[in-house]
């Protein structure tokens, strides 16, 4: 039994729904109790889908448990086939149905439906959403894809984009164009937009582009083994990532590594003087493994940030994330415990968090700006505008995304100049934030019901975070004069100055901080 | 009944036939009610004993992760709990100790049963008793079921409140009415308005269930009268009646008419003449009528179709047809509790299809055929129906927003008129949802 406040991933059948909802002409019959239909709203509200997910739930109740739930499943399956006439069906159980062991796969197979029926075995009490999506797509590919004649021109499949993914919709568009520039066609994009008959043609491609290992790796590995399709390992996020990707695709397909950089703005924006202020900003990254390791590289190499900490919630990507963390000189945090992430961020005291929807809350509580770079995401992370994170335009989008929560150069300059001005004092904060985060009770906008008032008493994590705080064992006291001096430092660097001074004092075994200590620390850290 | 709340034509929908269908139910389970119950009881914590699905449902229903600091959590069952490798009760004790150590402010802890905990027959009542013995008097531990196999959406509040009743101390002797128990979670501001009006009528001994704090628990006995402010509290009512309390039957206090009838029924039960009520409510009632009339401009003459969801459907149909001039096409409800809904059914004109339970695909066929001006439905159906050109009102807002009594009557009508006004206001051409892979 595990105490859980928030969960980064849903149960595995939600992963299967992400695949089914992304595809066309596929129907999912899910043996599940009444209530599990809540998952529909993830797609219709958060992603604003205009159709219900193609899922039929058996919605059994207590009285059905005494009767014949297996027969209920059979009838639901038959009715779903007759109403929706899909090209193929997937069948499975949610957590409760797994316990009653009706064997949906076996029942569906014996029904002799005239379309392929693919049974899913997703262990709800061991695995989670990403596994569910990955496994489901692998089962579908394995059941339907067969060796077939290769396309005449070089082509690839785009593998991994699903419903509810972080910017999957626009990443597909961006990569399709990028590949087209290289003379490479997209044979099939799957799961997103693919029909079961498209899946049968996967083998016609010359290689697979594995966009998101979280949801497509098992299928790619199987296709490599059984259909002889090699797959890409680089993630085309950021300038470096895109260049690596182009080189890898060129190598796999034997085409010229062309990349049209006319629209690429990130390098110049990063080099322009306003961005000088971004130098050494300490960032903490947390999310799914793929986005975190790609974004860590962007943060350090393309934005000039310092990576103060990083980690992922999906254990499947732990090894890859650990490798990048080592390269960045930090220890990777691999956990799906929200409270642990909160404690780690508090201890690292970064100036910017790159995270998921969950880290937004952490940032709000700690007064640290946050940009979302990974699922799980909320309605505002499905923007109306075109906003990929992959490819050339993705790099441009990332520059904006990573800079927006911060005070920008010109603004920082003005804040310093007008520090004591009553209308432009430091407590007013950056113009686009509406005040300092710790004081802000403003709730996120967006879909979904909200209770009327912000929650007040804190907090389940209090005990835990105390022990993990940055100050450690030695209690350091600020003398009054030093504290006054500290307050003269602009607020946006004050946290860093305070932290550095305390660390400096602690390292010397000093328990009091005077004005001298403050300036000695400043000199010590000056570069 | 006096002429003040004259009935519709005869019996209204009291004896109307009910369409019952069995198929896919597109509804939340009872766990969802934790989202508003935990706000009403600031010293309570709700610990769901369930699966990752339960945790995911809660954060999705709660506005998809709006709160950083909830007073609810899930003890997620793992493979070892199910395989019998770990004693589930010992595990639960461990989790509860961990939780209470972190949250010393908790006075009430609810162990909430889920589908998996019901199926594996984990007896949470026994666990609650055991844990109370350990943690009393600091913390009272209680249990109830919010599982989808037993409860639908708002029924979770019913099972929660019903579970609190046996623990209430013995209360006022009968047979006359001495104290009033108002059952149903209301936002604080609404509760204050209600208490204020009841005091003006001359009823001061008023208790609300759920009490905001453990310390404000009250007694129940034959001298207690129970008025419901939510129609989904059938089990709670039955539990209170078993303790000797008597039901004050009344329409639900939605809109000026429902609210007035509700106060009159209570006054009558306490032997207070109707003129006292009329005097006390005159000003707020007039305000409510004005506010409703204004919001109802956009609603008059338009048709409404209810999918079954919150069990508020019958009282709301009564409000929308009688006070806002709408025409009800179908009034679907997950469960039709005739005793509780009697006052509302009597006022609802015959005509709409009354349906109980659901086969969502068949009901979608009906709504497409009827093409109502407004469809009241759950979050899973709203955007797909909008994409088909039907205006919708997502029903979950009705349990999160203050909608009861006079001062909120205009807001209640506004919840329904806003989607229609918005559709009229937008000049963006024919709305064609973008092609989505």
Shape of chain A, please? Answer: globular
Radius of gyration of chain A: 26 Å
Summing up helix and strand content along with how strands pair, one would put the structural category of chain B as alpha/beta
- What's the shape of chain B? globular
Order of adjacent strands in the largest pleated sheet of chain B: 1-12-11-10-13-14
Quaternary structure of the protein: heterodimer
Level of helix content of chain B?
40-55%
Spatial ordering of strands, largest sheet of chain A: 11-10-9-12-13
Gap between N and C termini of chain A, in Å? 50 Å
Give the uncertain stretches of chain B in residue-range form: 1-8
Largest interface: A-B, 89 and 85 residues
What can be said about the biggest beta sheet of chain A?
Answer: 5 strands, parallel
The biggest beta sheet of chain B, please?
6 strands, parallel
Structural class per helix/strand content of chain A? Answer: alpha/beta
Arithmetic mean of pLDDT of chain A: 88
Notes on the protein architecture:
The complex is a heterodimer of chains A (527) and B (437). Chain A has 527 residues and is α/β, with parallel strands linked by helices. Helices cover 45% and strands 12% of the residues of chain A. A 5-stranded parallel β-sheet of chain A has the order 11-10-9-12-13, with helices on both faces. A 4-stranded parallel β-sheet of chain A has the order 3-2-4-5, with helices on both faces. In chain A, strands 7-6-8 form a 3-stranded parallel β-sheet, with helices on both faces. In chain A, helix 15 (338-348) crosses helix 16 (357-366), helix 15 runs parallel beside helix 19 (462-468) and helix 21 packs across helix 22. The longest helix of chain A is centred in the last third of the chain and has 17 residues, at 491-507. Chain A is globular, with a radius of gyration of 26 Å. Residues 431-472 of chain A have low confidence and may be disordered. Chain B is built from 17 helices and 14 strands. In chain B, strands 1-12-11-10-13-14 form a 6-stranded parallel β-sheet, with helices on both faces. A 4-stranded parallel β-sheet of chain B has the order 3-2-4-5, with helices on both faces. Chains A and B meet through strand 1, helix 1, helix 2, helix 3 and helix 4 of A and helix 1, helix 2, strand 3, helix 3 and helix 4 of B.
């Amino acid at each position: 039994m595990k105490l859980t406040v928030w969960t980064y991933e849903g149960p595995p059948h939600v992963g299967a729904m992400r695949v089914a909802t992304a595809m066309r002409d596929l129907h999912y019959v899910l043996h599940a109790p009444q209530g599990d239909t809540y998952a529909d709203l993830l797609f219709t509200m958060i992603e604003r889908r205009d159709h219900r997910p193609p899922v039929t739930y058996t919605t059994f109740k207590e009285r059905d448990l005494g009767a014949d739930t297996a027969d209920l499943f059979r009838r639901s399956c038959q009715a779903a086939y007759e109403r929706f006439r899909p090209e193929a069906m997937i069948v499975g159980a949610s957590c409760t149905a797994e316990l009653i062991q009706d064997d949906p796969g076996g029942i569906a197979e014996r029904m002799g439906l005239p379309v392929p029926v693919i049974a899913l075995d997703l262990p709800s009490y061991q695995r989670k959403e990403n596994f569910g999506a990955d496994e489901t797509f692998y089962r579908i590919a394995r059941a339907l894809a067969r060796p077939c004649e290769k396309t005449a021109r070089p082509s690839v499949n785009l593998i991994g984009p699903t419903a509810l993914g972080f910017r999957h919709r626009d990443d597909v568009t961006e990569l399709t164009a990028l590949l087209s520039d290289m003379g490479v066609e997209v044979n099939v994009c799957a799961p997103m937009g693919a029909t079961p008959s498209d899946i049968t043609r996967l083998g016609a491609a010359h290689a697979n582009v594995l966009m998101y290992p979280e949801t497509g790796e098992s299928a790619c590995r199987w296709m490599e083994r059984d259909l002889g399709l090699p797959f890409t390992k680089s993630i085309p996020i950021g300038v470096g990532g895109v260049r690596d990707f182009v080189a890898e695709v060129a190598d796999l397909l034997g085409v010229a590594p062309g990349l049209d950089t006319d629209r690429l703005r990130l390098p110049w924006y990063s080099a322009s003087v306003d961005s000088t202020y971004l130098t050494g900003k300490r960032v903490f990254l947390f999310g799914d493994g793929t986005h975190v390791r790609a974004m860590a590289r962007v943060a350090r190499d393309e934005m000039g940030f310092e990576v103060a900490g990083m980690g992922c919630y999906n254990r499947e990507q732990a090894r890859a994330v650990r490798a990048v963390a080592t390269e960045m000189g930090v220890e990777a945090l691999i956990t799906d415990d929200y409270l642990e992430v909160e404690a780690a961020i508090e201890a690292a005291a970064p100036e910017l968090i790159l995270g998921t929807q969950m880290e937004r809350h952490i940032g709000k509580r700690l007064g640290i700006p946050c940009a979302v770079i990974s699922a799980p995401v909320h309605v505002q992370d499905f923007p109306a505008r075109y906003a990929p994170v992959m490819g050339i335009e993705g790099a441009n989008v990332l520059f904006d995304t990573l800079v927006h929560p911060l005070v920008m150069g010109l603004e920082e300059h003005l804040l310093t100049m007008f520090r004591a001005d009553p209308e432009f004092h430091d407590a007013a904060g950056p113009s686009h934030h509406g005040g300092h985060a710790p004081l802000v009770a403003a709730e996120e906008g967006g879909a979904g019901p909200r209770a009327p008032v912000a929650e007040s008493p804190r907090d389940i994590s209090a005990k835990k975070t105390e022990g993990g705080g940055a100050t450690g064992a030695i209690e350091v006291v600020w003398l009054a004069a030093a504290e006054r001096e500290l307050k003269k430092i602009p607020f946006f660097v004050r946290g860093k100055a305070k932290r550095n001074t305390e660390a400096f004092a602690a390292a010397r075994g000093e328990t009091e901080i005077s004005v001298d200590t403050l300036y000695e620390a400043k000199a010590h850290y000056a570069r | 009944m006096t002429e003040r709340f004259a009935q519709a034509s005869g019996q209204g929908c009291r004896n109307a036939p009910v369409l019952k269908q069995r198929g896919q139910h597109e509804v939340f389970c009872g766990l969802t009610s934790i989202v508003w119950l935990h706000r009403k009881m600031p010293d309570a914590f709700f610990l769901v004993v369930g699966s990752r699905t339960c945790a995911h449902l809660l954060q999705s229903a709660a506005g998809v992760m709006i709160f950083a600091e909830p007073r609810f959590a899930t003890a997620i069952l793992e493979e070892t709990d199910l395989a019998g490798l770990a004693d589930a009760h010992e595990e639960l004790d461990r989790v509860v100790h961990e939780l209470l150590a972190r949250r010393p402010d908790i006075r009430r802890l609810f162990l909430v049963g889920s589908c998996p905990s019901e199926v594996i027959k984990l007896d949470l009542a026994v666990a609650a008793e055991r844990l109370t013995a350990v943690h009393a008097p600091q913390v009272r531990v209680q249990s109830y079921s919010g599982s989808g196999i037993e409860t639908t959406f708002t029924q979770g509040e019913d099972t929660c409140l019903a579970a609190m009743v046996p623990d209430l101390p013995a209360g006022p002797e009968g047979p006359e009415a001495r104290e009033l128990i108002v059952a149903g979670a209301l936002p604080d501001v609404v509760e204050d308005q209600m208490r204020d009006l009841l005091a003006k009528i001359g009823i001061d001994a008023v208790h609300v269930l759920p009490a905001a704090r453990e310390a404000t628990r009250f007694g129940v006995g034959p001298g207690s009268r129970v008025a419901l402010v939510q129609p989904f509290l059938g089990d709670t009512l039955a539990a209170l009646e078993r303790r000797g309390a008597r039901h004050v039957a009344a329409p639900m206090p939605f809109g000026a008419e429902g609210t007035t009838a509700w106060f009159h029924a209570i006054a009558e039960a306490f032997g207070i003449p109707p003129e006292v009520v009329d005097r006390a409510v005159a000003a707020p009632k007039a305000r409510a009528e004005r506010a409703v009339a204004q919001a109802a401009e956009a609603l008059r003459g338009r048709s409404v179709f209810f999918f079954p969801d919150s069990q508020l459907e019958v009282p709301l149909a009564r409000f929308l047809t009688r006070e806002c001039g709408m025409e009800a096409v179908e009034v679907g409800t997950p469960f039709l509790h005739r005793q509780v809904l009697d006052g509302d059914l009597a006022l609802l004109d015959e005509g709409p299809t009354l349906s109980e339970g659901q086969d969502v695909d068949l009901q979608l066929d009906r709504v497409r055929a009827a093409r109502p001006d407004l469809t009241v439905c759950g979050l899973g159906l709203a955007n797909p129906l909008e994409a088909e050109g039907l205006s919708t009102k997502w029903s979950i807002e009705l349990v999160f927003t203050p909608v009861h009594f006079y001062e909120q009557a205009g807001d209640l009508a506004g919840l329904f008129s806003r989607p229609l006004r918005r559709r009229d206001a937008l000049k963006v051409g024919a709305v064609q949802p973008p092609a989505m892979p």
